[in-house]
Amino acid sequence: MNDQQTTDRYTVADLEKWSEVACDVSPPIRLGIFGDPVAHSLSPQMQNAALHACEINMQYKWFHIRANEVRSALRFLRQLDFVGINLTVPHKIAAFAEIDAAEASASLCGAVNTIRLDEKKLIGSNTDAEGFSRAVRSEFSID
After folding, report:
1. Residue 92 is a catalytic residue
2. What is the pTM of this model?
3. Of the residues 17, 92, 120, 121, which is catalytic?
4. Structural domain boundaries in the chain
5. Three-state DSSP class for 123?
6. How far is 74 from 132, CA to CA, in rounded Å?
7. Helix or strand or coil: residue 28?
C-alpha cells in the first residue's frame, strides 16, 4: 500500500475538480466527513485505522463544507466514486433535504449523519438516536 500524504482537509472546490485533486492519491479517498468546523473530528483517524486493519484499499478524510455548500457538495459526490460520507454540525438537517431515500432512523429524526451512495443515489441514515438511546439505557436503566 502506497500511502501518499494528502491534505488535512478538502473543500467543495476540491470536490468540483476531484479528478485533478485526487488523481494521484493512494489509496483513493472514497469516504469522508462533511462539517463546519470539521478539524475536531476524530473520525478520519478511527476510520483509516479500521480500513487499514481490514485491508480495505481506501481512505477517509475531512471535508470542510460550509452550510451554503452542502447541496453542491452532495451533487458533486453523486458523480464521484465515493462509498459514503458522515455529517457533523451543522449539516445533519440540511442534508436530509438533499437525499434520495431515508432509512427509518433518519426519517424519525429528520436528520442524517451518514449517507451512502448506491448507484449515484444518496441513502441517508442516522446513528445518533440509537447511540443516545443505548447510552441512556446503559447509564440510567431507562428505556
Report:
1. yes
2. 0.86
3. 92
4. 9-140
5. strand
6. 26
7. coil
Residue stretches of the chain with pLDDT short of 50: 1-6
Q: Looking at residue 65, what is its pLDDT? A: 97
pLDDT at residue number 113: 95
Residue 38, C-alpha cell as written in the block: 470539521
- b/e string for 59-72 if b means 16 or more Cβ within 10 A? bbbbbbbeeebbeb
Residue whose cell numbers read 477517509: 60
List the end-to-end C-alpha distance of the chain, in Å, as a whole number. 45
**Which residue do the cell numbers 500524504 mark?**
5
Architecture of domain 9-140: 3-Layer(aba) Sandwich (3.40)
Q: Is there a contact between 70 and 111 (Cβ–Cβ < 8 Å)?
A: no
* Integer CA distances (angstroms), 72 to 13, 78, 94, 105, 135, in order: 10, 10, 12, 24, 35
Beta bridge partners of residue 114, listed in sequence order: 86, 125
